[in-house]
Write a structure and sequence with these properties.
The protein contains 17 helices and 14 strands. It has 456 residues and is of the alpha/beta class. The strands form 3 sheets. The chain has a 6-stranded parallel beta sheet with strand order 3-2-1-4-5-6, with helices on both faces. It has a 6-stranded parallel beta sheet with strand order 11-10-9-12-13-14, with helices on both faces. A two-stranded parallel ribbon has the order 7-8. Helix 12 packs across helix 13. The chain is elongated. The site of nicotinamide-adenine-dinucleotide has 26 residues, from helix 5.
């Protein structure tokens, strides 16, 4: 083996990223470590801890050959030449910056573990999403090692999206690597370029200074989320004016300067990253004395909160101003299709608001029921988790579609209608169903940003 790569953190990023690197670079040994024993056990088993289309095959090809999973963080550090740090960097919930700043405690812990378990210098790669200038702090901690070892810190943010992680990793739009503009920084950068060059065309491997690289990741997420909040804000106006958000988005997206992607109106964005990364950006702007810039980006998050609350208000208003004691089937709990991840899913907030109104929830999702149970474990009220959509809809007054799973559009809606209480309602929070057809069956249909189709 040419070199040993270690990744600290076997989560949604560390696992798939390292599996693809190991698959594409059989001449490197790749070890993925995590302090979470259950997670590592799952990575070693037939039931991987996360669901991603295509991931099973990639892991099976490389696992045991040059891809290894372990809980022994110290041994992994000792053996490694290059260490990717892919631990979680959630929003800080205490002390200064609570509610906005990034909580870097897990991050800093890895820096100290690296010092403690190294007997030679190594390349340390920031894979986690971090505030701009974190590499400076990382470098300072690593430089404080008593053995006088030299560590080189690189930034290599991950742009893959959950649900399409494997494809994104195998065919990335670009790989970004930030390095210090010193001879040792540039040498380390070349070592990382050598790895990605195994499968990524050289022109797609962008190099930059560390600060640009760190900031690019935060801003990319902010820009993507901003498009969703922008189109969602217009969906509210469409509902007031009988304009149709699908027509507006389609025609707008045909303008090459705007582009068609990320213009789908919905109940709101979720996922572990968008909200935390924008709040992190907001905090940074406040820290650097830029309150106008901070409030500009904060509005993207506020608009998302508004869209989620607006969806629930629509349900209550149209169901005769009360949902108390009414069964509502939630179709989808994951924050997006093709993943079981529910972190920051709009479904959580929607469920909480509906439970406050004393609705009875019947939650169905093809992959996310286990996570849904954890998310709602502290909620009071009537909640059922059901692994069959028809069972969930039995006796329900309404179906609320919260995730854009393709299979939802293929269900037998006549059968669902027959199983439900009347009048039967559908609130399509993802605009994925055939609304005219549903109306023809007898449903009262409430899409996002489009005229409601009712019989009332
Ligand atoms: N999820 C995404 O789609 C995505 C995409 C791009 C970037 N990111 C960023 O990547 C980072 C990781 O995200 P994730 O979704 O994989 O998080 P995650 O919570 O799924 O995984 C992080 C893992 O790190 C482990 N960990 C934490 N501290 C550790 C330590 N000291 N030693 C060993 N293991 C430790 C945790 O046990 C956990 O399993 C975050 O900064 C996130 O913002 C996430």
């Amino acid at each position: 083996m040419k070199k040993t790569i270690l990744c600290i953190g076997a989560g949604y990023v560390g696992g798939p990223t390292m599996a693809v690197i190991a698959d594409r670079c059989p001449d490197y040994k790749v070890i993925v470590v995590d302090k979470n024993e259950a997670r590592i056990a799952a990575w070693k088993s037939e039931n991987l801890p996360i669901y991603e289309p295509g991931l099973d095959d990639v892991v099976k090809r490389a696992r045991g050959r040059n891809l290894f999973f372990s809980t022994d963080v110290a041994a992994g550090i000792y053996e490694a030449d290059i260490i990717f740090v892919s631990v979680n960097t959630p929003t800080k919930m205490f002390g200064a910056g609570a509610g906005k700043a990034a909580d870097l405690q897990y991050w800093e812990k890895t820096a100290r573990d690296i010092i403690e378990n190294s007997d030679r210098g190594k390349i340390v790669v920031e894979k986690s999403t971090l505030p701009v200038r974190t590499a400076e702090a990382m470098q300072r901690i690593l430089d404080s090692n008593p053995k006088n070892l030299h560590f080189e810190v690189l930034s290599n943010p991950e742009f893959m999206a959950e649900g399409t992680a494997v494809d994104d990793l195998q065919n990335p739009d670009r790989v970004l690597i930030g390095a210090m503009e010193t001879p040792s920084g540039q040498k380390a950068l070349q070592d990382l370029v050598d790895i990605y060059s195994h499968w990524v065309p050289r022109e797609k491997i962008k190099t930059a200074n560390v600060w640009s690289s760190e900031l690019t990741k935060l801003v990319s997420n902010a820009m993507l989320a901003q498009r969703i909040s922008s189109v969602n804000s217009i969906s509210a106006l469409c509902e007031k004016t009988d304009a149709n958000i699908l027509e507006v988005s389609d025609a707008m997206g045909m303008d090459k300067r705007i582009g068609s992607r990320f213009l789908r109106a919905s109940v709101g964005f979720g996922g572990s990253c968008f909200k935390k990364d924008i709040l992190n950006l907001v905090y940074l702007c406040e820290h650097y004395g830029l309150p106008e810039v901070a409030s500009y980006w904060e509005q993207v998050v506020l608009m998302n909160d508004y869209q989620e609350a607006r969806f629930v208000e629509k349900i209550i208003r149209n169901m005769f101003n009360t949902v108390a004691g009414k069964r509502i089937a939630l179709f989808g709990f994951a924050f997006k299709a093709d993943t079981g991840d529910t972190r920051e899913s709009p479904a959580i907030y929607v469920s909480q608001l509906l439970l406050e109104e004393r609705a009875h929830l019947a939650i169905f999702d093809p992959k996310a029921l286990d996570n849904a149970r954890v998310d709602l474990k502290d909620e009071q009220g009537h909640i059922e988790y059901i692994d069959d959509p028809y069972e969930a809809a039995k006796g329900a007054h309404a179906i609320a579609v919260l995730t854009e799973w393709k299979e939802f559009a293929a269900y037998d809606y006549q059968k669902l209608f027959d199983l439900m209480e009347k009048p039967a309602f559908i609130f399509d929070g993802r605009n994925i169903l055939d609304h005219q057809k549903l109306h023809g069956i007898g449903f009262n249909v409430f899409p996002i940003g489009q005229k409601a189709l009712t019989h009332l």
